[in-house]
Amino acid sequence: MNPAQPTNNADDRRTARKQASEWQVRLHNGEVREDDDAFREWLEASPVNAAAMDRARSIWASMGENAVAPEILKVRRDAIDRSRGTITRRWLTAQSRPFKVAMRAAAALAVVAAISLPVLFVGLRSDPNSQPVSDPGAVVASETYKTGIAETRIVTLTDNSRVTLDAATQLIVRYTAEAREIELLAGQAFFDVAKDKSRPFRVRAGAQRVLATGTEFNVSMIGREVRVTLVEGEVVVTGERPDAEDGPVAPPVKLRQGEQLVVPDAGLPGIKTNADMEKASAWRNGKVILDGDTLAEAVEQMNRYSRIRLSIASDGLEQYRISGVFHAGDTDAFVDAVEAYLPVDARRLSATQIEFYSRH
């Protein structure tokens, strides 16, 4: 095969898409122009190249302001410069291993070198028909709810509260005569709480407790961080002592509608901000929205929705931040995007295992 004339097979498409993403960065930076000979020669060498360039432009446009953030451009430019053969020589020789860079229009990824926090999660339930007991705090009944990879579930509790479990989520419902207690062990859940002033609705995630009354809220747990997002009503978040002693370690934090509290492993007070409601509810609409998440956090989230397991092999890669919108379970789009916009490659270890490693 004449390397200057790529054929329309999968490897050629991957190579063309990688080159197109690099051309797009250089065009934006002013390093080349649309009428430059090298760019025109590459573009006209094959219909595969032209199609790849159309795709790169579409992806760039879909990324909006993320595409032109200075820190993102720097990471992309550095990744290109490290492999600088240049891209013109690389497409002519076509000897290097082709990179998977087929980013789908619905999955745009932006990358920043930095760190962020992880998240934890809890669940609940009660039974108003249970028999009274001598100790009102005694557990009358308990039940465990669990979802697998790529599985979500909606549970209507006997008090008419509804709990939506995200994929790879586990929670325990314990109810007593005086309270509805939920413990989130892993994952993420959305709670639509039925009003019952006589029996508080409490969700525990790690060392944090959420007390809700007539409320809609989301609790998530990624790594060792708890994130509570209030959609409607009110909640109060309290912490517990790490040595399991009774009593809060810090004053309770009250959330208003539209607010979010992120509590790190160290506990309250945490960080309270106005919530990105689209991101908080994305998982219930079959999407994953990343907004400055580390690669490690992004991998953990994507692994919830696919039986193809992603892992990070090289030290330091966990620190890169990423932003973008992906369909839950679309592992290929995520991998392609990471390779296109980070100095990272992926190798497929098996039909169900993909590993990220440093390109250099």
TrEMBL record:
Residues 144-235 form the FecR protein domain. Residues 18-58 form the FecR N-terminal domain. Keywords: Membrane, Transmembrane, Transmembrane helix. The chain crosses the membrane at residues 105-124. The keyword Membrane applies. Residues 1-22 are annotated as: Disordered. Pfam families: DUF4880, FecR. Gene3D superfamilies: 2.60.120.1440. GO terms for molecular function: sigma factor antagonist activity. This is FecR protein domain-containing protein. The lineage of its organism: Bacteria, Pseudomonadati, Pseudomonadota, Alphaproteobacteria, Parvularculales.
